[in-house]
């Protein structure tokens, strides 16, 4: 099909080329041979009267025109996909759709199992895929690589609709027989103890550390760094370490490990969790249904 002289099938190739900036990888992504991908690029260059991608050393880079096309092309493809998915009402019992969510293992532990159970009851042929947070969740959403972000509200932008789903608070956790602390914890004790932290992505900087530095000009003494919240408690038994954790996750871990939960010795911010979706999928019936399922599951969680 052509629109203003352009074969619309080439838009999918253009999107892959602009993102990958590599003919071979773009072809692999679309299951096209390298000659076929190169031929498509030649046709795109002719249509836009621009090289779009040019060699720069051993790699290819986008031209200014190619750079300007990235988001409009991605938005157009998302709108087209959303329009096609809106052809009929979403029927959960018949749907074989796969929903892709970006969520931390904390959310995967305290909320998404309940969502999965409800999905199994209501849409047994549908599926969930969870991918871990990266350094650019907003860009990942805008590229259409995920259906929903399930992240702290502070990690979301204003360009797409979002909805708060639940709140949690921070607590401290340490070994039950840690001789350095009793049933309470002072800020001086907290500062002197070794800490277990979570970091992920290329930046490797946890937001909580930024908050500490800005609020108290204090950098915690780090003894263990892991890439998953659910791993944190396993590094506490038999040590003098401490960790700052979400209460809901801490309560689950304390039922399985010899750990105790203590109030944080500082004015901790409330953790507000939210979901966000691409604005072009606002009326996608399947995503609307899934959002409602997540909201209902979150509302059924015990209060903290």
TrEMBL record:
<protein>
    <submittedName>
        <fullName>Nodulation protein D</fullName>
    </submittedName>
</protein>
<dbReference type="InterPro" id="IPR005119">
    <property type="entry name" value="LysR_subst-bd"/>
</dbReference>
<dbReference type="InterPro" id="IPR036390">
    <property type="entry name" value="WH_DNA-bd_sf"/>
</dbReference>
<keyword id="KW-0805">Transcription regulation</keyword>
<dbReference type="GO" id="GO:0003700">
    <property type="term" value="F:DNA-binding transcription factor activity"/>
</dbReference>
<dbReference type="GO" id="GO:0003677">
    <property type="term" value="F:DNA binding"/>
</dbReference>
<keyword id="KW-0238">DNA-binding</keyword>
<keyword id="KW-0804">Transcription</keyword>
<dbReference type="Pfam" id="PF03466">
    <property type="entry name" value="LysR_substrate"/>
</dbReference>
<dbReference type="InterPro" id="IPR050389">
    <property type="entry name" value="LysR-type_TF"/>
</dbReference>
<comment type="similarity">
    <text>Belongs to the LysR transcriptional regulatory family.</text>
</comment>
<dbReference type="InterPro" id="IPR036388">
    <property type="entry name" value="WH-like_DNA-bd_sf"/>
</dbReference>
<feature type="domain" description="HTH lysR-type">
    <location>
        <begin position="6"/>
        <end position="63"/>
    </location>
</feature>
<dbReference type="InterPro" id="IPR000847">
    <property type="entry name" value="LysR_HTH_N"/>
</dbReference>
<dbReference type="Pfam" id="PF00126">
    <property type="entry name" value="HTH_1"/>
</dbReference>
<dbReference type="InterPro" id="IPR037416">
    <property type="entry name" value="NodD_PBP2"/>
</dbReference>
């Amino acid at each position: 099909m052509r629109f203003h002289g352009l074969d619309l099938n080439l838009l999918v190739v253009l999107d892959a080329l602009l993102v990958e900036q590599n003919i071979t990888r773009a072809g692999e992504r679309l299951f096209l041979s390298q000659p076929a991908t190169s031929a498509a690029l030649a046709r795109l260059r002719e249509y836009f009267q621009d090289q779009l991608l040019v060699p720069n050393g051993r790699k290819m880079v986008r031209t200014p025109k190619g750079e300007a096309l990235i988001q409009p092309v991605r938005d157009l493809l998302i709108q087209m996909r959303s329009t096609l998915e809106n052809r009929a009402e979403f029927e959960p019992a018949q749907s074989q759709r796969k929903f892709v969510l970006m969520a931390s293992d904390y959310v995967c532990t305290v909320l998404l199992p309940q969502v999965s159970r409800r999905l199994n009851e209501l849409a047994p042929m549908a599926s969930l895929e969870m991918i871990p947070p990266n350094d650019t969740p907003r860009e990942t959403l805008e590229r259409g690589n995920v259906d929903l972000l399930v992240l702290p509200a502070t990690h979301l932008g204003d360009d797409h609709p979002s909805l708060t789903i639940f709140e949690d608070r921070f607590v401290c956790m340490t070994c039950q027989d840690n001789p350095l602390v009793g049933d309470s914890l002072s800020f001086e004790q907290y500062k002197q103890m070794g800490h277990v932290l979570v970091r992920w992505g290329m930046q490797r900087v946890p937001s909580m550390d930024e908050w500490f530095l800005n609020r108290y000009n204090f950098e915690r003494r780090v003894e263990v760094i892991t890439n998953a919240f659910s791993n944190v408690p396993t590094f506490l038994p038999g040590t003098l370490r401490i960790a700052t954790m979400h209460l809901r996750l801490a309560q689950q871990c304390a039922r399985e490990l010899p750990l105790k939960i203590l109030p944080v010795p500082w004015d901790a911010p409330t953790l507000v969790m939210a979901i966000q979706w691409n604005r072009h999928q606002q009326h996608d019936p399947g995503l609307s249904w899934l959002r409602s399922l997540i909201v209902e599951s979150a509302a059924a969680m015990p209060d903290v």
